[in-house]
Amino acid sequence: MKYLKSVRLLFLYLLLGVAVGCTGPAKRLYPVNAIDLSAPVAPGFELHQVSSDLGLVIEALPEHWQVTTEATPHMIEHQAEHEEEDAIKAGGRISKAEAMERARRFFENSKDLNFLNTRSEAHYLFSFARLKETQPEPTAAHVKSSSLVAMAGVTVEGWTKHAEEERPVQVKGVQHAHYFEIDYTQHGERQIFKGVVGYAQPYWFWFYTYDHLQDPEDQLLLKRLLETFEIRTGTAQ
After folding, report:
1. How many domains would you assign to the chain?
2. In angstroms, how far is the first alpha carbon of the chain from the final one?
3. Of 13, 63, 98, 153, which shows the fewest CB atoms inside 10 Å?
C-alpha cells in the first residue's frame, strides 16, 4: 500500500485547516438540507453508517473493492514500515515488534471508513469529526480554507505539483462543501489527490481519494463517487 504515509501527512494538514479556520463564540444554525438516516436509498447506491447519527451514501462498489472501518493486517504492516523509516529519520532505530505496536496504536482509535481497490491500490477515505459545543458553525469560507490547507500540504512536503483545482460544490445533506484536486509527483510516481471537505451539522467531514493511475477505471469511478455521494445525519428510525 503506497498511500498510507501520504494520507497521514495530508490529513494532518486538513485538521490544521479546521483548527485555524474556525474560531470564535459558538453559534448554531438550523441544519438546512439535512437528510435523515432512515430516508430511502436510491437503487444502485449503498448507505454506510459510520456512527449513530451519521451516514455516507455512495454508489455500490465492484467486488474487488474492500470496505473496512478497521486496519487490515496489510495496512498495519505497511504502516510499521513507515514507523521504522520515521525512527531512522529521527536519528534512532526501533525493532520490528515496536514498529508493529506503533502501527496498531496509529489505527486503533481511528473511526475512518476506508475503501480500497485490492487490484490497483486506489483508495478513498471518509473521515469525520463532530463539532465541539464551544466551536461556532463553520462558514463556506472556513470549509474552503480547510481544503486549501490540504492542497498546500503537497508543496510543503516537497512533492512536485503539476496542476490544481478547487471550487465550492453542492452535496446532498450538506450545508457547505468544497472540492479540490491536485495532480502531483511523489518519489517519481505520478498521483492524483482529490476530494471534498464539508460540513453537515454537526459534523466536519473529509471525503478524499488517492489514485496511483494503475487502472483507468479508477478515475471514472472516483469522479462519480465525488459527484454523487450524500451525507445523512440524524438517528435512523
Report:
1. 1
2. 38
3. 63
Where does residue 70 rank: exposed (0-12), middle (13-18), buried (19+ CB within 10 A)? exposed
37 in Cβ contact with 232 (< 8 Å): yes
Q: What is the mean pLDDT of each run of 10 residues along the chain (237 residues)?
A: 47 47 50 83 95 94 87 74 87 93 83 87 87 91 89 71 91 95 84 90 90 86 93 76
- Between CA 103 and CA 106 the distance in angstroms is 5
Q: What is the structure's pLDDT at 166?
A: 94
- Asked whether the beta carbons of 18 and 129 are under 8 A apart, the reply is yes
Alpha-carbon span 156 to 10, nearest angstrom? 10
Distances (CA, A) of 164 to 107, 184, 205, 211, 225: 30, 9, 21, 15, 19
Q: Residue 153: which domain range?
A: 11-62+128-233
C-alpha 16/C-alpha 142 separation (Å) is 12
**Domain of residue 136, CATH code:** 3.40.1000
The secondary structure of residue 188, as a DSSP letter, is T
Q: What is the pTM of this model?
A: 0.77
